[in-house]
Each structure stands twice: as C-alpha cells, then as structure tokens.
Design goal:
This protein has 3 helices and 10 strands. It is α+β, with helices and mostly antiparallel strands and about 170 residues long.
Length: about 170
C-alpha cells in the first residue's frame, strides 16, 4: 500500500511541476508577438531552459512578487545586459539590442536598475513597450530622459545599462 501512495504522490507532484512550467512558458510567450515567440527559447530567470527554441530569441516569464506583470523576450544583446545586471558587471554587447515587454512592466526606477524607492523617479503603469540598446550611448543625445514626455525616453541614464524605452499603447503615469 505504501508503494501506491508514493506513486500517487509522485504523479501529483509531477503534474504540478508540468503545470507550473506551462504557466511560466505561457507568461514568457506573452512578452512578444506570436510570430517571434512561437520559436523562441523559454528560460526561467535562474537560467533553466523550459523550452528550447529555434530562433535567436529568449523569452522570460513574469518575475513573481514584484508588483506587476513583466515577462520579457530578448535578443542576444539584451541577454548580455541581463547577465551583466545579474552579475553586477558592465555589459559587453556591441550590437543594437531589442527586447519586447508586450504584457507590460512592474513599477521600476527610471534612474537605476537597482532602484531604491527613495530615488523619486518611478515609472508606474507602463503597458506594452519595446526596449532598445545601442552600444554607443552618445546616440542618446537627442532623446528625452523624461518618461512622461509623450514618447520614447532613455531609462537608467548615466549607467552602463541605459536603453531607449518605446511605449506602444500607453505612456506611464
């Protein structure tokens, strides 16, 4: 009888793991257009590959418990930047980078990626948007740093992680 109970518990646990992975995959794929997401690799934020893809994109699910929905779908340059952020190093990408966040974003500091609530410049209620990396930050010279300017802006100015935010269907409050 105890072998049957262990088998039932194992099956239930396996079903729960598969369901959780399926939820993470669905969340990750919501970050990008279907035409791109359908062939993207899906990874969890710890680097675990949840689904191998056939194109050069990687989609990441919503980060739990951070105040909003924020799945990402990124190219190689953005993967480089995310790895640098994770390891507290400077990114080394040398090509234009594009990231999709079509499901929106959680509240985020406009000043620093490590945002402290006291920095006073938080971007709230940002819906679908693109993020663009350029290797030469001198190219930012004619772009606003104000997220409420009605158009694209530079986020994380004066950091190695600076990038262009491009709202698609809304502007932050």
């Amino acid at each position: 009888m105890s072998k049957l109970i262990i088998l039932i518990i194992s099956v239930v646990f396996s079903v729960q793991l598969v369901s959780a992975a399926e939820d993470q995959i669905a969340s990750a794929l919501s970050a990008a257009p279907d035409s791109l997401a359908k062939n993207a690799t899906v990874a969890d934020w710890d680097g675990t590959i949840l689904r191998q893809g056939t194109n050069s994109w990687t989609c990441l699910p919503d980060i739990p418990d951070n105040g909003g929905a924020d799945p990402w779908c990124v190219d190689a340059s953005w993967q480089n930047l995310l790895n640098a952020l994770t390891n507290d190093t400077e990114p080394t990408y040398d090509k234009l980078g594009i990231a999709y966040m079509l499901a929106g974003d959680s509240p985020v500091s406009n000043i620093t990626p490590t945002g402290v609530e006291a920095d006073g410049d938080w971007v709230m209620n940002l819906k679908a948007h693109l993020m663009i990396l350029v290797p030469d930050h001198a190219m930012f010279d004619n772009i606003s740093t104000d997220p409420s300017n009605g158009g694209p802006w530079i986020m994380w100015t004066n950091t190695p992680y600076a990038h262009i935010m491009v709202p698609i269907d809304s502007y932050p409050e």
